[in-house]
Design a protein that fits this description.
The protein is mainly alpha-helical. The protein has six helices and no strands. Helix 3 runs antiparallel to helix 4.
Length: 76
């Protein structure tokens, strides 16, 4: 998932973020507000995850979004 896709799918991603990364607060989500780099920074801050691990997880996330959003398939 690239930065534009992350930003474009932000409203759908917020719920999944809280499920996947349970340490995120509502304030964290407000600060991230669709910014991929802020997301990576918050994951690193809360969990100590490495940037490449976060990126790999985000890349694996893409297919589930495409199932729910046919327009996302066209953008790929």
């Amino acid at each position: 998932m690239n930065r534009e896709q992350f930003k474009g799918q932000w409203n759908q991603l917020k719920g999944e973020l809280k499920t996947q990364w349970g340490k995120f607060t509502d304030d964290d989500l407000l600060q991230i507000e669709g910014d991929y780099d802020k997301f990576v920074g918050k994951v690193q801050e809360r969990y100590g995850e490495k940037k490449d691990e976060v990126s790999r997880w985000a890349d694996q996330w893409k297919p589930s979004l495409q199932k729910d959003n046919p327009d996302a398939r066209k953008a790929s």
